[in-house]
Amino acid sequence: MLDDNSASPASPGLWALAPNTPAPRSSAPPPSPYYCTTPIFYVNAAPHIGHLHSGVLADVLTRWHQLRYNGWSRDSPAPLGRGKTRAILATGTDEHGLKIQRAAQLAGKDPKGFCDDVSQHFRRLADEAGLGYHTFIRTTEPRHRDAVHAMWRALEDGGHIYKGKHEGWYSVSDEAFYPLAQTRRCRDDKSGEEWVEAIETGQRVEWTSEENYKFRMSAFRQPLIDWLEANPSAILPSTRHVEVLEEVRSGLDDLSISRPSSRLDWGLRVPGDDTQTIYVWVDALVNYLTVTGYPWTTAAASGEDSAAALLHRAWPASHHIVGKDILRFHAIYWPSLLLAANLPLPRQIVAHSHWTMEKAKMSKSRGNVVDPFHEMQTKGVDVVRCYLCRMGGGLATDSDWSEGTLLEFERKYLQGQLGNLASRIRGKKILARLPQADEQAGGKTATVSRPGPSASSYSAKLDSLLCSTPDDFSLRLERCEVGQAVEVVLNLLGACNSLVQSAEPWSPATAQEVVEAAVYYTYETLRLTASLLGPVMPVKMRELKQSMGLQLGEEKDDAWEEVIRVRDEVKVPLSGKMKPLFPRRDD
Ligand code: MSP
Asked: Which atom of ligand 1 is found nearest the CA of 325?
């Protein structure tokens, strides 16, 4: 992990500046960093695999942008090209509100102590999963309180807040108000118990009738429509973009943005009015600004090369990664608040689908949640990360969690394809057939050349796959389709395995040029895989690179050009042992 101000060996280069370290001077202003966020997690209960899912997707995208691009231009969403990226990933915990207040009461703890405890679990989750975060933000931090208050004042100064009476249904579990039409009455025939619940989430709602502050969200209906129409990929996947646009077109109500402190004590008070506590979603959403140093007073004072100025340039965020259940808050409430405060809107909001358990939504009350710590300890961190990405990385459809499928995925693709190729290339019988041995710093290597155009059709197929894979992979990640991007690499590995299988380079009967072609393509396939899947499995792909005698070159200025350049020849290490990349469980 990367802490606010420190670099970690697990994620080299994600955050290249130490605090207050001036960036190298150049005539052009430094580019905006890539800035990606995870949702901040409620601390009412321990983390589950769905939380890890949001975190891993954001981490993969951040590492990918670090590898691929030189920052992000403020004026255009297009990547800038060569050079060193500064990529910022932010994650953290959402600690205010009735939901947390009640969870603390139930645990018999004071809210702050309760939040300190549970927040630690989320931080440990991010650390153990290797999330290269720059900031772990907690909404109970003073810097966040200051940012929320600054936002409130900006809304107030713009005349967007008024005091009014609010009556309606509130779900503590969702921390959301629901209009009557979005609720239904329910009755349990056995017990006779009656309740009202939100149709969308199935969570119970409570009737509230109170004085509170309201935000004139209705005034932002047309500006929101204009934004969504002008930016057809503002929300991914596109089906969600269409849904949000329809919802906005159908009309926006004003939003209650505070609750009486007598009801909601655990939260930030409204500036200048202690009798009201700020609505937890307004509080929570501002975290994305807090991370960048909002309201940016230090940045303005410290010069454009300072770390504070770099963070300021990180706004607007490049990507907000969120689950589909919280899209409305991010795609309607958040842009309205930003527009009202005259702040730029995030570039893209990515809504991912959910993990289910036997097709049912995971929830603590159903007792069907998967423990991410247990999964990482028993299957390995990178195996879990890759499985989450490949099987759950599709944005459109939910995926059902199954231990059997995870083990099958590991056996078939990670051990059977990737691990198999990596160990085959070190096979004694194969290495013994390689001709020229050069002495290198790290030991002996054999030089093997790229087969010419007249080589077998298998070689030709692999050659063209090696050339097209980086673009195919990039295309998927540009659409944030992480699962599809992983699949592109798995296809390359599958094709390479087939080539090796039919070439039989271990057999003494196999012709010399066929042995060398098999070794060449295996090496190049693994080299490309190690780079492309580096964001998904950072530790394993580093191990793979090391075992292949490759430079760990992400820091190089032209890293991407190096990654995609198909080599004329490769240098295969002849010495050195390699442990299996993905050991079999019975090994
Ligand atoms: N605190 C709010 C977010 C505030 S962001 C300004 C919140 N927290 S949460 O802990 O309930 O959820 C955090 C993330 O976990 C959300 O993106 C949510 O979609 C995700 N997941 C929760 N359950 C999930 C699954 N079963 N599957 C995949 N992701 C899911 O909402």
From this structure: 19
